[in-house]
Amino acid sequence: MNALAIDCAVSKIAVSAKKDSKSVKVVLDLGSRQSEKLLPAIDYVMREMEMTPQDLDYTVSTLGPGTFTGLRLGLSTLKALTLCNGTPLYGVPSLDAYRWPLRNESSMVLCLIEAKEDEYFCAMYSEGKKVVEDGDLTQDEIMKLFSPEDTVVLCGPGADDFYEKASTLPDAPKFKLYSPAPDCADSLFEAAEKMISDKVEPMKDYDGPVYVRKSEAEIVYEKTHPEADGQK
């Protein structure tokens, strides 16, 4: 299948195009300049695969949680392709996408994305099933999920940071660090094609990113307009 994937859950945005079994990828680590370089990156990977937007069978993106700006940028770009060409767009929850290579792991799996200092977007899985839903937790809150006898596989962009901080703490479980590629573009293709095989509906035009915390703008607004919070 011909497809375009954008992993936009973290500060490094990965753009990948695939044509059957071949693919090419670009990673943007440019801060605020990512918005001006995303379309040229898409154009580049599409040309390398000798495809046009009309050739795409589907597009897919990380859905959140993750960086507010990146998620809005990636999803709005792919929605534009849907609007222009009717290309189905699939969204994969970010933590599920990063955990995808470990979906058959029998041990507990903790998938993490760094949110703030000592805070992580995270979800936990056991025997292939999500047992702790996507959340925004501190390191201390995460550690309370385990006992010292547990064995836990850490994955995701925040795994290295969490392992360094938590693995030597008293009563820490046995952490195993899984360090795959720094993005989940390949997993997005696999996850989307499973959704297609399972006849899962693509995203609707009104579907948007999934957030598990308020944006800084929302927090500031509620602090300065307390009456607005009471009207919800």
What does this structure look like?
The N and C termini lie far apart (44 Å). The chain is globular and about 55 Å long. It has helices at residues 34-48, 68-85, 94-99, 139-143, 159-166, 185-197, 216-224, 226-230, and strands at residues 2-7, 13-19, 22-28, 58-62, 89-92, 108-116, 119-126, 129-138, 151-155, 174-177. The chain is α/β, with parallel strands linked by helices and 232 residues long. The chain has a five-stranded mixed β-sheet, sandwiched between helices. The protein has a five-stranded mixed β-sheet with strand order 8-7-6-9-10.
Question: Tags for this entry?
Answer:
globular, five-stranded mixed sheet, single chain, 232 residues, alpha/beta
* Biggest pleated-sheet summary: 5 strands, mixed
- Low-pLDDT stretches are none
Shape descriptor: globular
| Number of separate helices | 8
Strand arrangement within the widest β-sheet reads 3-2-1-4-5
Alpha-carbon distance between the two ends: 44 Å
Tell me the strand percentage band: 25-35%
Quaternary structure annotation: single chain
Number of strands: 10
Concise synopsis of the structure shown:
The protein has eight helices and ten strands. The chain has helices spanning 34-48, 68-85, 94-99, 139-143, 159-166, 185-197, 216-224, 226-230; strands spanning 2-7, 13-19, 22-28, 58-62, 89-92, 108-116, 119-126, 129-138, 151-155, 174-177.
